Amino acid sequence: MLEPLAATVLNSVLPTRPLAAHFFTSKSAFGMAVRTALPHDFFTPHPSGTGVKAKGKGRAQPEHEHGTCSRSSTGTVPDSVGAPYGLAASSSAKTFPPRHRSRRIPGYKCISSGSTSHIPSLRTWSRQVHVAQRRHASSRTATATAEVPRRDEARQDVRMQTFHDVIQSHNDAIHPEEAWEAFHSMWVENGEPPGPQTAALAFLERVIESVMRGDDGPLSRDLLQRWGRRLETALIHIGPGIQDVPINRVRYRWNALFLQAMALRGRLNEAEQAYAALFHCTDPAQKTLQRTTMLQAYTVLLQAVRAYRGSRAVLDLLAEHAWLNKYLIKSPPAGPLTAHATRLFEVAMPILSGVTDPVRCLDESLRVFSKDRLSAIASLLLLSIVHTGGNPLALVEYLQEHSVPLPDRIVYIAAKKLAKTKSHDAASRLLGTLSPELPHTKRLRPDWHATALVLASRQGNTDEADKYFNILSKARCITPTDAATYLQAYAVAGKPQRVVEIFDELFPQSHHSQSRRLRPNIVHYTIVIFAHAQVGDIDGVNLWLGKLSHAGIRPDSHVYSIILQTFASRGDVESMISTLEQMREVGVSPSPVIYTTLISILAERRDPMAAERVYKRAIDSGVVPDRIMVTAVMNAHVEAGSWQGVIRTFDYLNTPGRPGAIFSIEVFNTLMKAYVLIGAPFRVVANLFRQLQKVKLRPDARTFSLLIQSACDNGFMEIAEDLYNEMERLATEENQTALSPTVYAMTILMNGYLRLGRRLKAKGVLDRMKERGVQPTAVTYGAILKAYSDPAAPGGTKVAENLLQSLMKPGSPRPWLQLERGRMLSLETIYQPLLSAYSKQELVYDVERLHQELMEAGGEPTLGTLTALLDAHRRTSNIEAVRTIWPDIYRLAHEYMRLNAMLSSEGAEASKLQGHGVILCVPLSIYVDALSAAGEHAEVARVWKTLKDEGLSFDSHNWNHLVTALVRAGEPHRAFDIVENVILKYQAQARRQRGRDRDPQPSSPLTLDLPPPEEGDLPPPRPEAPLHSAARRAFATERSTKRLQNLPALEEKGSQDFAHPLHMLQQLSPLWNTWRPHGATLVLLGRVLDHLRSGKVVQPVRPNSDVAFEQAALDEEEIRRRTEAAGLVLGRIYDAFPRTVQLIREYELMKHSSQRKLPAED
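Now predict its structure.
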């Protein structure tokens, strides 16, 4: 039941006739407007004493809380926190003649009371000054007294200027607190709100707009309450003169603002009904102005409802106030309403996106509302999903299943969004629910054909694009957007020449160009640039950038994003950095797409911390992260094997209400990729795949490819083959074109057969690839070359060598060079398997020959190829060649880190190896081993110190190799110290961190925002390289399958929490216990202990030394001295490093026990 307070508010400030009489010419019209929303006595004033008792927050407040006022009284002003009234007096207080009739409001008598005795005058309050204060005031000097008016006058001018600036601000940012302070101060000094009522109302409207935009901070309940009280109090003191204003518009604005104050204070039940009543109290002569006022008021109501009751309550409100749908679902109205309708839409959509599980929400409403009401609710949910970057597929399928109709405009919007998310089949089915022609008239529906053109364009289907564009052209319905869509179809298809031809046909160059209906804009030029970028035609990109500038169009962030994506796809980081510098010079700020591109390239370079810094910089610059950006951060952690970062980012994405937090198939695939790389058992990955239906997601080609990869890693090739066949069946029989087998899925299947030695099966997959017109990539050929580079394989490396030569034969077509990350990276991909194989076989000549051929083919030295050369020379003890190659590796590592630092905007000076060990850990271990074996111990110490000073984060392998180098240098005590106080300490620290509780709803996806390390911890090491090696993944899956046999409930928990199995695997998987002494290290240290126990000191390795001869030449005194020294060293090791000694003993016992269990030979 509506309480009398809200009803009386609408009437009390108006003339003596009821409100309805002013807005409607007939009582019947008014009754029809509010019949369903309000009781019959809504606009009838009620006494505040007895008879009707208010409830809840609408209960009448004590009279002394707000005081009373009248038209003839001078009102007092409470401050922003409700302090006592009567802060100052004014001789210019405005008075009003008495009313003909008073209307009392329970608890707010200041609006309607005709009495002048309820509240004292400001003069009365000003006289109640303490005697000491008067004495102090009278003792001031005459000079000070003279200066006060001048200062007061200056302050008054500043405040009045602020007052007028706010009124004229419109959508400009203001400082609400500063504005209120100026308003409040003038109110106190003058005894009434400043300016005429219209100005005061305009001021309050602007301030509330600013507050609701977040200019005063997040919209917490406390903040809303504070501003609600302020607004209510101001309106009460403005109200007594409103009825004397002859313009209904002013009274309407006062009522709308008072309802906003009710909403801000949380009195939502009253506010919602009063909103409905006021919306329908429309003066036809001022309908547009009044609608403008109400749209602004509804914007505040939606945000208040969200703050107090949540997003679902906002949806319920919009369902009840169905008259708002025309401003949310239909196209924005033209004219004065446009800005406010757009603002209402922009506020409503993010709020509605917070509705958890829209499908279930709609299902709950299915049996409650009519089809029309369901259609409106569904339209709002669809718009919110599309507006916030989600995938509406699940909701669209539900609507089609239950035959819920949608407005044509919503169908077009949803179909275009489905096409953008690559749900092409669903988009076609949805568009098919409408006819291409209007019913009965058979007239063409331009919007239908324009949407069909978008669907064809997104798929690169040029035949369909030609069809729909020609229909639109014959009907003379071509718009600039349609022209851009048509160009995009050929750009996506990879046909830049045809794109240029269409551009010239649509926009011919002639002297009549200014009178043409279609003129090229930045979108059309951008698509041509994109077409050339798609095929890696940098010259074409530059040519059309020049034409863009010649046309007088300045490149925007979208143009730069395409250029950056082009360079990123080629791995050309230098060009990316040059483009970013050019953007800074011309003042173009990076867009979310550009930040996502930077995060993605850093993910490929396995630098998650730099990726997080880019994300943080985007947030600091005001960018609102979307799902794609957050997912890119998650992928950066996956690529680097930072499993805690993966879990934290996933939990963030799975928390409703977080910016960019939308659970989509891309998020699911990224999590699934983490399971594959960590070496999860197939049953865990398959169970995760089965949960897709539960979360209303449909697998795409990447989802199936990851599942096939897991089956191959676990050795289940029959299951992998069945999954591939299911992909083909769904693509052909059920027309799910998104599941058409890709080169990646086929390469994974082929590589699985090759790893198991089933080469005929692998050849069959390659033949199928060619039959279907799927072009093998460098990765495909790299997998074949790796399989045949194994010396134990039939034919040895000869087959691999012949294949490589055929691929690089002069004059032969090389389409694989254009399809995979640029020429240089593709060349390295196919040369690397043989380089590594020859290096392991110590075939230095062949390694150098292949490296030279790579350079002649257009490649460049990389860390991978130089590491193969370094290892080949280490294996053959060519220390001079090792020393020659190392400076080039060191330079490339610095260059690598310089580029990463510049991408993350740390500046060109940040070229140190701070925090990075992945890129240098393997070559460093090889170099240290080669130097120590050659007896160059001083060089080992120098290199290690240099890298340490540069901030390199050494990995566990580096520390284990350093232990070996120290033993070779005759420093056993320091070798044991490394194990005890570095390796084992890191091991304990890592186990402690893995045992920490998860934060299921993190406020940030970044590990940078985690609490700092505990006191005494070592600097956190970087995650070590994940299992990008198929052989290592196979080993990991075998071990993890055995270890997880005792956890049968893992799948059940994983069905509820998709990241739970990953959280368990990172603690159980043996391969991720990397911080441990290697077996070879423990064996070496065991021999050191035996050597010391025998009374022999550990001598440093020296080049060209004969240790046996030197030992035999020792005299008795030297032997005794060395024996004593050995005993002292042994004793210090036992005392200082007990854990390491105990670990060596346990390892020796384990090895001895395992050897005893081996079966005896027959």
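Residues 1-146, 511-515 have pLDDT under 50 and may be disordered.
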